[in-house]
Amino acid sequence: GCGSCRKTGSCWIRDDMPPLYEQMEAADGIIFGTPVYFGDVSAQAKSIMDRTYVFRFGRRLTGKVAGPIVVTRRVGAASTRNILYSFFIAQGMIAVRAGIGYGQAKGDVRQGVGGADGATALGEAVDVGKDVVNMVLQLSKP
Length: 142
Prior knowledge:
It is a single chain. This protein is of the alpha/beta class. Helices cover 41% and strands 18% of the residues. The protein is globular. It starts with a helix and ends with a helix.
């Protein structure tokens, strides 16, 4: 929250974020996934979201397609999905539908249920990927 990126256009912190900044800027579409921790995005996901504040100057993520995927044990999927949607909107991104996976133990979401009636978690994740690609292709048409 120091605001130095407002003046310089880049973050002064030297850590693992610069390669991620480059990848996000180069991408036409981004799939952002997080587990649900206490009804919210994970601390690591939130940190990445916060660190992209530098992109607000110059609107460097505007127009990119974004798809959220959340995984939870039982509750918090909708609120976490909405936090990701809010992040996408704040960055000027175009959001597609979300994928939700439910599971209690490591690996459960591979065969677990999804958020929609009759959907599987893996099926929803695949659909998010397809939606991101299809939207990117639609937007790139002349």
